[in-house]
Predict the structure.
Amino acid sequence: MSTMRHTDPVLPVLEARGLRLHLADRAGARWFRKAPRLEILRGIDLSVAQGETIGVVGESGSGKTTLGRTLLRLYEPTDGSLRFEGQDITHAREERLRPMRARMQCIFQDPLSSLNPRHRIEDIVAQPLLSFGLVRDRSEARGRARQLLERVQLSQSFALRYPHELSGGQRQRVGIARAIAASPKLVIADEIVSGLDVSTQAQILMLLREIRAETALVFISHDLSVVRALCDRVLVMHRGVVVEQGATDAVFARPEHDYTRDLLASIPLPERDPNWIGSA
Ligand SMILES: Nc1ncnc2c1ncn2[C@@H]1O[C@H](COP(=O)(O)OP(=O)(O)O)[C@@H](O)[C@H]1O
Ligand SMILES: [Mg+2]
């Protein structure tokens, strides 16, 4: 660890206060007036520390993906504040964000569309190391990439393959290896086990459990059983606001908000042991 700041458990890695985001509604645009503004995020408070995993749940369209993108400053907030490692980045320009981007990473739902189809797996994993100047040259980067592949339990033989040659679960491992390559302080995972079969989901969640001590993890999912198995805290989103947040066990056992109760009732929890991915 380079400075005390990064290991201080009191200081959150990421902190959002009253975060708002308005986007133009292109569907509502007319030639005679500007596109109306949609309020996508309507005042979000969130804080996540190193070693902590927070789940973001909510029905489709509640704003989870947009929140993830805003936390990574892929959108500039309309209002509120966003701090990363203690620095205010709410309106920071890309030149200032650039050196921080190595320490804030994301993993997406569909790795096939986020992994360059023409690049070999080792180069995909090595890419952050090269683009953030964390290695001397490509050969060092490839060496590191192979270690990272081992970390996510992919054998050396995957290094020279291409994304389309891999299964969904294997591609998601590559996405994780790439995300952790630069030793990020914040990882945002958006629906990364959706669409995988249950045993592959369990393997991916086990991997996340192994990496979560080193980083702050924001785990977005509409699948409550997955969130319950992985997350320390959960935040329930509804129409761009957080209606409830708290320790995962408490929220699941005693949901306080009607919306959370409806969500728990409407999404059938599979007949799964809460420890289905193995106890932590
Ligand atoms: N680029 C955009 N421009 C306008 N509206 C958007 C944009 N991206 C998302 N939205 C709208 O924001 C709302 C939240 O979307 P999203 O964050 O994808 O929700 P979730 O991930 O919870 O399903 C939706 O109503 C969606 O239509
Ligand atoms: Mg989404």
In short: Residues 138-151 form the longest helix (14 residues).
